[in-house]
Amino acid sequence: MYEPNVVGDWQEYDEHAGLRVRVHSLAAAEPPRGRDDAAEGLTYFTLRVTVENRSARHYGIHLEDGQIDVRVGPDGESAFIDWRSSQFIEGFDVHPLRRATAVVYAAGAEASLKQVDVQVQLRVEEEWTERRLWAGGIGLCEAAVAAGVGRDGLAHQVSKFLRDQAEPGTP
Length: 171
What we know:
Order of helices and strands: EEEEEEEEEEEEEEHH
Helix content: under 10%
Shape: globular
Radius of gyration: 19 Å
Structural class: mainly beta
Strand content: 35-45%
Distance between the termini: 40 Å
Number of helices: 2
Strand order of the largest sheet: 1-14-11-6-7
Largest sheet: 5 strands, mixed
């Protein structure tokens, strides 16, 4: 079964040796050119999609509108993409040991931002790559976790496991 990447993970492309991509820097943020009227009542966030070339040759890449799909919440509702504020990679040659990054501004219902899925389909040298999926979220503030909210969450389980495995006398 195909498993999604976690936001921040690199995904390599078998068909283009040395080329890899990742979705990262998922965070709440206001767009630099102001809010779009169509996003009224929604919470803005940003994410970055970075393409890195670790091969010995250059690749011509495209990562434009329509090649990045952002979904929020447990039902996978489409997020509003602010194309006016976003910056895409439109026909760029990524030379060896170089990177190119697209910055996407999107918006969704605040309650849905704890689950954000981003699907990317890169175009390399006029060929479409397979779609890749990254899963992440915005949200659990540290104060809420400290107050005991989300005690059954993965972060709490990992913390408990690490405390249980620690040697006596360690904090």
